[in-house]
Each structure stands twice: as C-alpha cells, then as structure tokens.
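Researcher: We're reviewing a set of sequences before deciding which ones to prioritize for further study. For each one, I'd like a predicted 3D structure that I can look through quickly. This is Integral membrane protein, putative. If possible, include the structure in token form so it fits the rest of the review sheet.
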Amino acid sequence: MMFAMKLDGNKNLRKYSMFLSGLVLLQPLYLAVNAVYFTIRRFHVPDSSVDLFISKLLNSSQFCYFLGMLLVAVYVSFVPQRYQKHNNILSIASNWATVVCSVLLLLSYVVKGEQGSLTFFYYMIAISSLVFSFNQGLVMNVSAPEIHWYAVAIPVSGIVVVVYQLTFLFFAEKLNVKGINLTIVTVQTVLAIFATIATSVLWTMTYFSADSSLLIPESFEFESSSFFSNLWMSKFPILITFFGLGYVYIVYPAIAPYKLTELRPAYRIDLLSVFAVGLSSTIIVFLCEYTNLGPNKNWRHTHSLWNYSTLLIIPYLLMPILFIVPLHYPNTKLAELMTKNKAFLGFFTIVFVVLHALMVTVGYSAASMQTNDQYNPSMTSFNTFFSYFFIVFIVLLSQGYLKTYKEFLNNSDTWATNDMKGPRAFFYWLGKSFQYGWDAFTETFSSDIKSDILKTN
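Model: Here's the predicted structure for Integral membrane protein, putative, in token form for your review sheet.
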C-alpha cells in the first residue's frame, strides 16, 4: 500500500523542500566515491588499492541504500493505514536523522589525527546511506505531487559537488593551503550538514502542521488494471532503469577510470564524468518540465518515439568490454590507448556514464506514466526497488572480479585462463567473480576495513 499526501499549504514551500531533499540525497555516496582522491590519502591506503577501496565503499553504501528502500517498502505495505496518516511526522524525524548522520560522518573523517579511522568512516558512510535512503522513501511517499523537483535536484547535486571541489582546489593552490586531503572533504561535509539542516527546517515548516485527513491512500492495485498488467505496460522504462542504474558500477569508477590510469588524471576524469551526468540528466528533466517533448508521457500514444530509447541498452551493455580487455590483454592496441591516452579513456568513460544518466532519467520519468491511470506511483516504487536490488548484485560482482584479478595478477605464472579461450575463459572469470563477490559480501561489516582492503593488494 502506497500513500501520497496532497496538501493545500504553501506550494512553493513544498517545492523548495523537495528540491533540497534531492540535493542532499547522494551526499554520502559523493563522499564514498567521488572524493576518493582525497580520502584514500587521508587514510593512507596505497594508490594501488584504490579500485578495491572504491568497490568496498560502494558495496556497503549501495547495500544500505537498498536496505533503506526495503524498509520503507515493508513499512508502507504492511503497517496499518491508520498509523500511516502520520507519515508527515515520521518524514520530519527522518530528515533530522540525516543531520545527525552528517555530523557523525564529519566526526568520523577528522578523528584520530594523522592516521584517521577508516573503519569509523566506512561504517558512518554505510549508516548514513541507510538513513538517507529511508528518508528518500518517506519523502517521496509524503510529497509525491512535487517529485519532479526532487528529480531535478539529484543531478544538480553532482554539478554542485564538482564546482565546489574545483573551486576549493583553485583557491587552496592560490592560498597555499596545507592538508588538503583533510580540509577539502571536511569543508564539503560541513556544507552538507548546513544543507541537511536547511532541508530539515524547511521540511518541518512545511509538513509539521499538515492535516492528516489529507493523506490519501493509493493502492498497488488499480480498478482499471492489475499490478502485473501495469508492470507489462511499463516494461520498457523499467527495463531501461534496471540496466541504467545498476550496470554502471560494473566498471565505474573502480576500473574506469581509476584502475586504468594514475590517481590524479583518474580524479579529473571522474569529476568530468560527474558533471556530465548532472548536465545530461538536467537536460532530460528540463524536457519533462518545460516542454511537451519529455519522456514523462505515455509512450503508447503521441510519444511513442521514446520506446526507441530502449536501444541505448545495447551499446551500454557492450561498452565495459573496452575497459576490461586492457586488463587481460595489456599488449593490444586498445590497451595502449586506454592506459596511455588519458583523453581516450576519459572520452569513453564519460560516454558510458552519460548513457547511464540518460537511461536512468528517462526510465524514472516514464515508469509511472505508462498505465491506464494518469499517474501510477506503484510503478515508481517497484522501479526503484528493482533497480537498487540489481545495483547491490553488480557492485558485489565488480568487487569479486577485482579481487580475483588481483589474486592472479600477483601470480602471473599461474594465470588461470592461459589455456582457455572464448566462452570458457569468460565463464571462469564470471564464476570466480561470483565466488569472491560473495566473500566480499560476508566481509561487508568487519572490524578492520583497512586490513580487508590491503590483504588483497
């Protein structure tokens, strides 16, 4: 059972609240992944382990994002309706919980002097991901009519992070700032704290006095058609989101760009990638909000051309080959281009993540608009939950592959697939990646994160 709150209060406040909520949603993920150039040095992890460092942080954060979504899904499906009329109050509490997590996240980054505490930081990334994800589910539940403002803010947040880091580095160089690895992430986290406080204050002002009688139930079942009929009608947007959201982590950013080049140029490529993701997503959102050309229409009628966006899946699924082949065949021309030509690596990394951004934004925009109902929130909920499940699977598979690769790389004389060709070698690596991925999952919550990373180095 899903619920959406229709309020007659200040419409602008609701818009601003949703925009700020979207702006802060991915802050834990940005610290885990896109600040890795600084965090890996803050915690004295060798550059050679950057891929495993990224994949391990991704593993825990995405698993906890999924767990937060699962908790909201269970809550709205099984908690009696008479209690869910107070979801506005619960969403206020969850917003303030993001403030607490952000403060603790800052503390985890600055404690223990020069060496820092990677384990504390790791667990706060995981806990913050869980809380932010749970808050996301409640926010979308309470203020569904303003969800497009939420969608606009998420890609904008990536652009904001890129602009902040470049601006900070520019002035830090001019002012000869010391200890940049500590300072830049500390300031970024402090800014995130202020953003979560502003969001929580505005959300409280907007929803604290909301009339609970305006809470309108919207079921997973509709009179016009069954849930599975709705699912069939929404199959293309859901399929696009499923692959677009999860598959990107098969190589990005642990392999492309960080494993294929040095840390500094990889960081630059990553910044450009985050900016490109934000820009391309914003373009799709603009089409949805300010034109009649966006994908947020019913594709069976006047906007049927958007069905062809499903074809983006084909190049998107094939592109990781460009990044995997250089690892296994380092003497090939492709390997030389990818590892020695930063522009070549950067171009294809950006193309890959832009495909990801376009597919996710198109899929999310369209999933709820394909049924016989004008707007079907159950498809949005299913789409999100289904896609996050795939993310967890892919992140574990990627981490398993990296652990397998490093094990054999350290023993090149016994390279496992020397005598194998084609499908046999592929399925060997796939099987080993599953095996090591499961091992990585069992080590998700260990007592010494740094040792777990270094033992595979």
